[in-house]
Amino acid sequence: MILKQFLNAKRERGFDPDLLELVQTIADATIKISRQLRVAVLHGHVGATEETNVQGEVQKPLDVIADNVFVAACQTSAAVSFAVSEEQDNEIPVSATGKYAVIFDPLDGSSNLDVNVTVGSIVSVIPAKAASELLQPGRNQVFAAYAAYGPSTSLVLTFGDDVDFFSLNADEEYELADADVKIPSGNAEFSINTSRQNLWDKPVQDYIAASLAGEGVYAKRYNMRWVGSMVADIHRIMHRGGIFLYPNDAEIAKKGGRLRLLYEANPMGFLVEAAGGGASTGLVRILDIQPKELHQRVPVILGALDEVEAVERRYAEAK
Ligand code: FBP
Ligand code: AFP
């Protein structure tokens, strides 16, 4: 089944046709980005630009290209009220009659681009007609997705009910590869940047130490994986379980965390919860956080529910 047919079936089940059309537009934008990524080296689109974004991060040419693709896609849809991007300081007004805000990280993990390692796009859609409605808790999302640009291009999406995996076929159509995906339990594997170990909150240090000692949730010695692209790490966890952490630590605490709430933690949290997993800061459920600003950062702990709950228990015991 291709995406168009999948969305038609949703239409027959009463989903909002405007939202479904928007989802097709978002999917088409990710196909355009995957085409650009395929030839980026040949077109000299790797390396850095002279520009920095609102986060003070140096932009890669492909950050800018992917951002332009997403913004242009949003501008073709009358259903979109505002576009909010990691790469733009402020929201971009789109249509005065629009009813959905599209919030996105156009190219996640872009430090991987120069070395041809998986990167992604992350998208969140919330009902919002006015700029004053953009700061909503993640539980209000009506759609979230990521595209993983790796050996193949995957689109993983949810309307909050189930999670479905699509894969880009030879005709450049997204084809359903796996329906109603659930994060499996039992995979003794964690994903965390261990170079920050001395900085992590004590509950995270204790949790990882226990996992390495064979005293974690599954009582066996844990394996470690860190791609440096959240999309790639979460995509692996969606398939085979485990846990991803970008926790609070002594250095990033003053910023609130490393990853961004609106276009990284919320959409990934929405997908992971819909796949039966957990999404937490260690102290609170990510999807319940009331955002205060568009580019707010939060600690992020995502993955198999039993693992995420084990980290939360350590935070609760440390109080
Ligand atoms: P960007 O939004 O700047 O791409 O940063 C997000 C991210 O790349 C995540 O995808 C990834 O998990 C993390 O940063 C990697 O961080 P680190 O540089 O500490 O390995
Ligand atoms: P294979 O030969 O089974 O593919 O393993 C090689 C390899 O995946 C290599 O590419 C990695 O660096 C290494 O194994 C990872 O090993 P760990 O599973 O011990 O991290």
Automatic annotation (TrEMBL):
Q: Where does the chain bind Mg(2+) 2? A: 105, 108, 264
Q: What organism does the UniProt record list as the source?
A: Allorhizobium borbori
Name of the gene: fbp
Q: Where is the Fructose-1-6-bisphosphatase class I N-terminal domain?
A: 16-171
| GO MF annotations, alphabetized | fructose 1,6-bisphosphate 1-phosphatase activity; magnesium ion binding
- Tell me yes or no: is rRNA-binding among this UniProt entry's keywords: no
Residues annotated for Mg(2+) 1 binding in this entry: 86, 105, 107
Reaction(s) catalysed (UniProt annotation): beta-D-fructose 1,6-bisphosphate + H2O = beta-D-fructose 6-phosphate + phosphate
Q: Does the keyword Phosphoprotein apply?
A: no
Biological process (GO) annotations? fructose 1,6-bisphosphate metabolic process; fructose 6-phosphate metabolic process; fructose metabolic process; gluconeogenesis; sucrose biosynthetic process
All copies of the Fructose-1-6-bisphosphatase class 1 C-terminal domain together span: 183-313
Pathway terms, separated by semicolons: Carbohydrate biosynthesis; Calvin cycle
**Name of one Pfam family that matches:** FBPase_C
Where does the record place it? Cytoplasm
Family membership noted in the UniProt record: Belongs to the FBPase class 1 family.
Q: Which UniProt keywords apply?
A: Carbohydrate metabolism, Cytoplasm, Hydrolase, Magnesium, Metal-binding
Identify this protein by name: Fructose-1,6-bisphosphatase class 1
Cofactor remark from the record: Binds 2 magnesium ions per subunit.
